[in-house]
Amino acid sequence: MPLSPVTLSGRHVDLLPLSPDHHDGLVEAVKDGSLWELWYTKVATPEAMAGEIERRLGLLAGGAMLPFTVFDKAAQRIVGMTTYLNVDLAVPRVEIGATWYARGAQRTPLNTEAKLLLLSHAFDALECRVVEFRTHVLNQQSRRAIERLGASLDGILRQHMRMPDGTIRDTCVYSIIAQEWPAVRSHLNWLLEKPR
C-alpha cells in the first residue's frame, strides 16, 4: 500500500498533492467563513497556514499522512484541504479527515465528488479493508455529511481529544468497509447525477 502523493481528478474538483505553493490560495479559502473561529473543529488561522502546510508535509514525509489541496474546477480556485491520516498498513486502513472547505464550497457537489475520489483511491488503488471518518459529537453538519455518504457509526470515543479552546471532545467514529464500497460508490454517483 504505497502512500505517495497523487492527483485525483473529477468533473467538479481536483485533489492536488499539498504544496507550499498553495499557501496563498489556502489563506483566501480559510477566510471565506472565518473557519478557524468554529470551536468544534481545528482549522488553521490565515497566519498559521504556512505552519499547518509544513506540519502536514512533515507527516507525509514520515508516512503518517497523505494531504491534499482541494481545487474547485468551476471557480478555478483553491477551496480547502483534505487528508488521509491514521494510516494502518497492516490492515490496511486509512481515515479521511482533517478536511475543511471555504464556506462558498460547502453543500455543493464538490464535497460529494471529493469523497468519491478519496474512497475510490483508498478501496481500489490502495486496497483498504476499511475507511474511517471521525468528527466532534456536536458537529452536526459534519455528522450529517458523513452519514449521507453511507458510512456507519462505529461508536463514540469519550473524552478523546482536547480542542483549541480547552474543552475535551467526544469523537464519533464512522466507517465504510470494503464489502460496502460497491453500494456506497453507486450511491455517491447517484447523488452527483441527480437533478439539484
Automatic annotation (TrEMBL):
Gene3D superfamilies (UniProt xref): 3.40.630.30
Domain N-acetyltransferase span(s) in chain numbering: 15-151
Domain of life: Bacteria
Annotated InterPro entries: Acyl_CoA_acyltransferase, GNAT_dom
Protein known as: GCN5 family N-acetyltransferase
